Amino acid sequence: MPGRDSFYALLRQHRLMLPARKTRHTTNSNHRYHKWKNLIKGVTLTSANHLWVSDITYIPLTNGEVCYLHLITDAYSHKIQGWVLTDTLWVSATINALQQAIEQAVEMKGSEIL
């Protein structure tokens, strides 16, 4: 039975190996700028719509560029409340996702304020 390295060499020889993934550049918190306190640390969630969180997911495209999925997610149910897909990291896209989430919540609960 061949070893791992010779097995991988055989796969490469027959072009059966996928190309190595490029490293992703993510948030680096080791900087001199202000770091905001985690306001939700220790909060116990008891129901949906108690806390929403935002996130931005990087989606690589086949042409080598990247698009960004701005999400507003309910922290209790993990349901996506609002989203926007765009080619920028502008805060306006996240605000649009938040507005979408608020509109959806108002529709579901009538005119009740969140």
UniProtKB/TrEMBL annotation:
The organism's place on the tree of life at top rank: Bacteria
A GO term, aspect molecular function: nucleic acid binding
Domain Integrase catalytic positions: 47-109
Gene Ontology BP, a term: DNA integration
InterPro entries: Integrase_cat-core, RNaseH-like_sf, RNaseH_sf, Transposase_IS3/IS150/IS904
Pfam families: rve
Protein's UniProt name: Transposase
Natural source organism: Bacteroides uniformis
